[in-house]
Write a structure and sequence with these properties.
The chain contains two helices and six strands. It has 124 residues and is α+β, with helices and mostly antiparallel strands.
C-alpha cells in the first residue's frame, strides 16, 4: 500500500496518487523523499503487480532511472519472506556517485526492512 510509505520508510516524506487507487499495473504514485541530505521528487509507475507475489515499479519521472522489485513467498501459514531489489543506471554526474549511493541505499533499505518487519510482527 503506497500510502503507508511514510510510516514504513524513513526517507519517504509524502505520497500522492497520480492515478486512482487501488494499486494495479499502470498505477502511478508520486513520492517526496529526503536521501543523503537532498530533497527528491519522483513518480513510480507500476509495471508488474501480482498481489501477494510480486510488485515491480519504475521511475516514470525523477532524478535518475530506477526499478524496484518486491517479491513475497510463503514460508508457512503465519510467515512469509519479502525480498527487495533496487536497480538503476545513473548517468552524467550521478554516475560518479553510484558506488556511494549504492552503499547508502543498501543501508537505508536494511533499516527500512527491519522497521517494516517490526511493524508487521506487532500487528499479529
Amino acid at each position: 500500500e503506497p500510502s503507508n510509505a511514510p510510516e514504513w520508510y524513513k526517507n519517504i516524506k509524502a505520497v500522492q496518487w497520480k492515478t486512482q487507487p487501488p494499486l494495479a499495473t499502470g498505477s502511478q504514485v508520486a513520492f517526496k523523499a529526503k536521501f543523503l541530505g537532498k530533497d527528491l521528487s519522483y513518480i513510480y509507475e507500476i509495471t508488474n503487480y501480482s498481489p501477494g507475489e510480486r510488485l515491480v515499479m519504475r521511475t516514470a519521472q525523477g532524478p535518475f532511472p530506477m526499478e524496484t522489485t518486491y517479491t513475497w513467498s510463503t514460508i508457512d501459514s503465519k510467515n512469509c519472506e519479502m525480498t527487495l531489489r533496487n536497480a538503476g543506471a545513473p548517468s552524467g554526474f550521478s554516475k560518479w556517485l553510484a558506488p556511494f549511493m549504492s552503499m547508502a541505499m543498501r543501508r537505508a533499505n536494511r533499516n527500512d526492512l527491519q522497521l517494516i518487519k517490526s511493524i508487521m510482527e506487532n500487528q499479529s
